[in-house]
Amino acid sequence: xxxxxxxxxxxxxxxxxxxxxxxxxxxxxxxxxxxxxxxxxxxxxxxxxxxxxxxxxxxxxxxxxxxxxxxxxxxxxxxxxxxxxxxxxxxxxxxxxxxxxxxxxxxxxxxxxxxxxxxxxxxxxxxxxxxxxxxxxxxxxxxxxxxxxxx
Length: 151
Fold this sequence. Notes:
Distance between the termini: 45 Å
Low-confidence stretches: 140-151
Shape: globular
CATH superfamily: Uncharacterised protein PF11572, DUF3234
Radius of gyration: 16 Å
Structural class: alpha+beta
Order of helices and strands: HHEEEHEHEEHH
Number of domains: 1
Helix content: 25-40%
CATH topology: Trna Endonuclease, Chain: A, domain 1
Largest sheet: 6 strands, mixed
């Protein structure tokens, strides 16, 4: 396996948080606002093409079983996808906070099989989106997220 070279700010923050728990709040804040990618093997889109999801469109999101749980492989950059899958596969890019809202109660695994990976169980995602993780990891009040918007 090669040495992990961050390709964007999110990856640099993820790598920093892996080394220093004090860097975790910045990683979580960036994660919520950054586009990540999930595999959607049955989505009707040609390789290399993009399209928007339609309202109420149903998609089949890839999962893997690990340690008795189902996980959605998720990627912090398009090149991380090609490290994971060997054949072209359709993917969906979305801001992580929106993706988490689209798939409530789901476990995500950022960059599986990469040197810099991060499992995000549903319980942790709930703490991130609800802002509770920032108190748990000792973020300063100015770094804490606002409560989620009510619908």
